[in-house]
Design goal:
Elements (H helix, E strand, L loop, with lengths): L4 H14 L5 H8 L3 H13 L3 E7 L5 E7 L1 H46 L1
Antiparallel strand pairs: 1-2
Amino acid sequence: MMNKPREVDLELLRQLEAEPQVNQRSLAVRLGLSLGKANYCLRALVRKGLVKIQNFRRSDRKLAYAYVLTPKGVREKARLTIAFLEAKQDEYERLQAEISRLKGEVVSMKNDEHRFG
């Protein structure tokens, strides 16, 4: 489940770029959002000019929608991807430091066990 709005926007843009004709229910399930939240987020992307909605007819003659990234949407997806990657790299480095610190504590505890029995 996604919590951060930027992460939700990025994943929506990724999903829409990969499958423009996806329906909102599928998007909601994929992103772990309620249908109402998915609809709200999609509308926000449209309002920001990142996505445009196109109508088309499905093979069963029903009207459906395609969500197409605008040039602004493609740029925003790239910007969000870079920011997401940088944040994950920072998180990874913090985790590595924490793991190293914890390993040191474990070694210290084992040494104390051997000394004090």
